[in-house]
Amino acid sequence: MNTDTIPSILLHESRQEERRHNRIYEKSLDLPKQTRPTNTTRGSKIYIATMSVSDSHKKNLIIAYNRFSKFSEIQWNMPRYTQDAKNIALPTNNKLSMLIANAPKTLRTKLQMSKETGLRPVDLCRLKVKNIDLEHKTVNPTTAKGGNPRTIPMSANLTAKIQERILVNNLTPTTNCLEM
Predict the structure, then answer these.
(1) How confident is the model over 58-79, as pLDDT tens digits?
(2) Which CATH architecture has domain 93-169?
(3) pTM (2 d.p.)
(4) In 3D, which of 138, 127, 126, 129 has the Cα closest to residue 174?
């Protein structure tokens, strides 16, 4: 390959990349061509700020324009938008019960314990036999974040499953209770 063509190839690829970024920016703003604020950062800020969309969408538009301005070497101060908090849709009790019922035996016990006690997966993995009080049907987890000690009650059904697991697998007090 001729070394004289390498700069021209790179320049051509750079121009293609610039055109691609411009198209992405223009499409993200979805404006008629004559009103696109590509020449002025102030116009872009005002237009995005006055859009009747969520702050999350405005944040995405600002990020797109910021990439465009960096690529085009345009200086500007990027405004800040915070994303709206969204509630997490929790599964119903029936769906959780179906999931637990169809899981393999070891996973079933872990899921049941997590459902009843609210323990996170990392807390379940650290749970040792000595942390479970079968007599009082409670669990005393050592939390991953070094939080305060606590005692959490368990159902008779879960206590029986854990007791069976300890006896069948001949687990010692220092062994992880829910190891696979």
Answers:
(1) 888 888 888 877 877 878 788 8
(2) Orthogonal Bundle (1.10)
(3) 0.52
(4) 129
